[in-house]
Amino acid sequence: MSKLGTLGARLHRGEIGYDFVKNRKIWYSVSILITILAIAGLAVRGLNMGIEFQGGAVFNTPKNTSVSVSQAEEYAEEASGHDAIVQKLGDGSLRIQVAGIDTGAANEIKNTLAGDLKIDSEQINAELVGPSWGEQIANKAWQGLGIFLVLVVIYLAIAFEWRMAVAAFVALIHDITITVGIYALVGFEVTPGTVIGLLTILGYSLYDTVVVFDSLKEQTKDLTKQTRWTYSDVANRSINSTLVRSINTTVVALLPVAGLLFIGGGVLGAGMLNDISLSLFVGLAAGAYSSIFIATPLVADLKELEPAMKALKKRVLAKRAQSAAQGGTEVHDEETYADEPEDDAAPAVVGPRNQPASRSRSRGRPSGKRR
């Protein structure tokens, strides 16, 4: 842990670092590939929408029902004439979900299931959702997501600038697409819990991005008054200075979510935990990735399209080329960059250098006595 703390301090001071911005084309390519796979999975398999969004019925059997999941699924499809999803819960009960059925036929399906499962129909708890109500829930979910994204863009444009707002918006769309694509590929059911998890991870993703943007905004004050660093250089330093912090917060957040997903959903069989924990787990990982590899490099690309930043980059590269031609001795400006280490910011010596008078100038010399 002490080594990790030392690493974080050295990254923050700029003593070491990895050039994330320089390799941004690699990160863009990886993100585009993952996004294409997610969209392809969404187009081929589609989302497994819960009855809350499309209407239907959910039948919960008593504890320790002896019928297997596959057999119960067959019974439910025969009784309803629709596809059914069956989950075995931790207490041994079954959750049978049938979407797209008329709520008026729910009692008949319930009685048929009770006969097939050899249990009393009164022991089966039925939850009915009308199709119109499910459509309203879906519309509200889309509206909530749209309002969230609009407010995020407005806030970032006011607090920082529009280029950072655009970059953060792209990163959020990246995270949403990947999370939804994973849901389509895995086949997990999309419920209101999924929407809650999705909105939660967007907040986490935005948090990491804003931390880097805040550091970048602070370090780029009066950037054009010096000729040592381009905007991309400072953006890279901002990523490195907040890297350990982002990793730590993401790992700490992922650990309990992993417990919900693999223990709560996988071992205990709690269906609602699956719905919310998968979106949290995938979204947290994607959000940490996008804040480092997508949002900040994209801001650097957008900023260096400005004439002032283009001119700065040209001056910096020309000065570095001149320094390389002179044997690597860089001549610094008298005004150095604010966050630059002092040992790197020492100005070059110009003109004669006055040597201090030595108090032991006659040490080791003859005393001057005449012989």
TrEMBL record:
The keyword Transferase does not apply. It is found in: Cell membrane. GO terms for biological process: intracellular protein transmembrane transport; protein targeting; protein transport by the Sec complex. Residues 336-345 have a biased composition (Acidic residues). Its main location: membrane. It holds the Pfam family SecD_SecF_C. Residues 117-304 form the Protein export membrane protein SecD/SecF C-terminal domain. GO terms for cellular component: plasma membrane. InterPro entries: SecD/SecF_arch_bac, SecD/SecF_bac, SecD/SecF_CS, SecD_SecF_C, SecD_SecF_C_bact, SecF_bac. SUPFAM superfamilies: Multidrug efflux transporter AcrB transmembrane domain (SSF82866). Residues 360-371 have a biased composition (Basic residues). NCBIfam families: 2A0604s01 (TIGR00916), transloc_SecF (TIGR00966). This is Protein-export membrane protein SecF. It comes from Streptomyces cahuitamycinicus. The gene is secF.
